Amino acid sequence: MIDHTHDPRAQSWVEGAAGHADFPVQNLPLGVFSRGDGARRIATAIGDHVLDLAGLAEDGALPQGLSAALAQPTLNALFRLPEADRIALRHALFALLSSERCRLKVTPHLHASDAVTLHLSFAIGDYTDFYVGIHHATAIGKLFRPDNPLLPNYKHVPIGYHGRASSVRVSGTPVTRPWGQLKAPDAAAPEHAPCRRLDHELELGLWIAGDNDLGQPVPIADAWSRIGGLCLLNDWSARDIQAWEYQPLGPFLAKNFATTVSPWVITAQALAPFRLAPPQRPDGDPAPMPYLRESGDGALAITLETTLRTAAMREAGLPPHRLSHGNAREAMYWTAAQIVAHHASNGCDLHAGDLLGTGTLSGPTPESAGSLMELSQGGKAPITLPGGETRTFLADGDELALHARAEREGFASIGFGPCLGRIAPARPEWA
Amino acid sequence: MIDHTHDPRAQSWVEGAAGHADFPVQNLPLGVFSRGDGARRIATAIGDHVLDLAGLAEDGALPQGLSAALAQPTLNALFRLPEADRIALRHALFALLSSERCRLKVTPHLHASDAVTLHLSFAIGDYTDFYVGIHHATAIGKLFRPDNPLLPNYKHVPIGYHGRASSVRVSGTPVTRPWGQLKAPDAAAPEHAPCRRLDHELELGLWIAGDNDLGQPVPIADAWSRIGGLCLLNDWSARDIQAWEYQPLGPFLAKNFATTVSPWVITAQALAPFRLAPPQRPDGDPAPMPYLRESGDGALAITLETTLRTAAMREAGLPPHRLSHGNAREAMYWTAAQIVAHHASNGCDLHAGDLLGTGTLSGPTPESAGSLMELSQGGKAPITLPGGETRTFLADGDELALHARAEREGFASIGFGPCLGRIAPARPEWA
Fold first, then answer.
1. What range(s) does the Fumarylacetoacetase N-terminal domain occupy (chains A, B) (predicted)?
2. Which stretches in chain B have pLDDT values below 70?
3. Å from B245 to nearest chain A CA?
4. What is the reported pLDDT for A1?
5. Superfamily for the A4-119 domain
6. Residues with Cβ within 8 Å of residue B82, at least 6 apart in sequence
7. Domain A127-430 bears CATH identifier 3.90.850.10
8. Average pLDDT over residues A378-392
């Protein structure tokens, strides 16, 4: 049963919101903004505006039980509340924004999006990155092991590892090219130098809602309800640092210099109509173990796109160039719920504001690859850009953007808003 | 130059503190305690007592600039202050506790240690675990690659990886045996079952002080000043889960079900006399790269011990059995400062209250091994305990304790206090 907040005919009275590419009234994402040097406040996005929810709550226009959580500078408290509270918030916002007679009450709290600053939406407790993009894992594996690209555990275990929470930043934050230890395969010794193989990774981020105590696994049937919402996530990767450091304990400095997320949380409630049956597993693949066996529709009908715009392209007035396009449903071997259930299956405690990355979401075709490592075949096949430049990996001044959109026949499609980062040169003084 | 707080002749007037094994007046560790259901408060330990520093500060008996930080329920704010503030605190505490005429002022804030509860001393931002114990890395490597135990990067890179901050607990918290995916090397398929190869890892923990912004590396000359203090850390490890899951991104559920730390922070100031020249690197080892080249005395004269007491031993009134003994100076290929400088060398931001583990600190001899994986040679050589039981890995009811002591001729030795955990059985309902 789909509730009326998903009715594709619904429209907001806010100018420009009806048919907005990302933020029609069916989306109602949650985020944090500020004006000038003002305090950080919780908001939703509607068309080209942000709506100050703290202000609305102060006026008594939102459910009273939410006022304390909406007065915070992050979404953590709001996502610690029961899901029913966020459902109530969605219904209240939908009513305020779709019903013309609420215009007077709401308008004082609307601000043009281009006049505000968006911030990281949570104080992140822990950040974990998964590796559920099977086409990515296969493509990367092929570069190392052409005959046996996927490791034996891949189809049994949703592979994941811990990332660095402190260096997660919101879209738009410049990404400084890191220094690190690099060693070419044929070099006698490593050197300390700026990264030469700087890459992006197209991922979805899952924001955890609620809390489970240490020692209390999350049953697979409850796992989707522990996801408060989604964002885009760019797991910037220094491939040359990674190649030299990652044995035997995994990537470390190759990743933790920066991770970028999109500012808006596309809520689990907004995504409800876009959960579909996962693709059939190939014949011969093992069935998921009982603790990972999800009944129903766990896959996400989300299309994905990556664009690149270099400094020269900006100067020449050329638009961003599409590097790849694909979709999450096809890319993910394990669903969002399976990721959560696996993470907590040993009793690990997950908390509101924890961030889980899916891993790079590449599709099965070359044009749907979610990283330059794949698109340039490990740096061997340069990509030609409009204007004639070529790239194997990212150059200084390059601006990389991730885009996502939940799309399904019969529903208003909703966008995530971009996840952007521009590469700043390595600092000479780090030597 | 050694300041007077390290004078070995100094004694506290607090009963039982003079010559106390762990907490003489030369130690003055920092921690967090509560009484009954009371609030968490910052304290130091002196002999068999804890001294309530929030209470002393309320009375105006401590430097005024520290009052706000000392009124917090964690040490984070205190360790965000400049090092000079923690030095001033140490000197003030030393004066109050060594000078008989302060007895009246101090006594109301003293509580018997056995009447209080100790808590996690920080709200941990990020937790990173390193792998700088070269004898451990060699011994573990030998189990997999007898001819080539150390990977080529080991002597160039202080290997580290991210851990889980949410599941770090204070000494004494029970450790529940985790469930996980296990696969014996000769099994056709993995199974989901309680861990059968549960192990400890003896580590030191480094608590970060101060903050560096993202993009601002920490020069090696400043790196020691970013360490606020040390603790003991038990990186509990499910070896069978680890063996199946860890390729290619490193250990995950094998580790994040629990990590135990000792409650007291042995401050960098208390440890100053125990920093000595590191052992000479073997002939032929590469020199550290410039960003890792530490001048002076970066090694730690800290002796380490692991003890085990089983349920049967407790029932029979047998004392804990010493499993291993060694020292940090001999075990660590990279120093604490090198760990910090490397972590931030790509611009990664470190913050007050971050926790860095050293990795397992095994010495070069069999009796100094910091894990059962090493002591039992991968489970092939059972250890016989007093009372006749044997162990390869940990059994339910086993209590594992880590101990550490900074020791140097001419100085009062100072102890860390134990880092304890008892194994609770796997929960049947997790199946």
1. 26-120
2. 1-2, 430-431
3. 7
4. 47
5. Fumarylacetoacetase, N-terminal domain (2.30.30.230)
6. B210
7. yes
8. 97
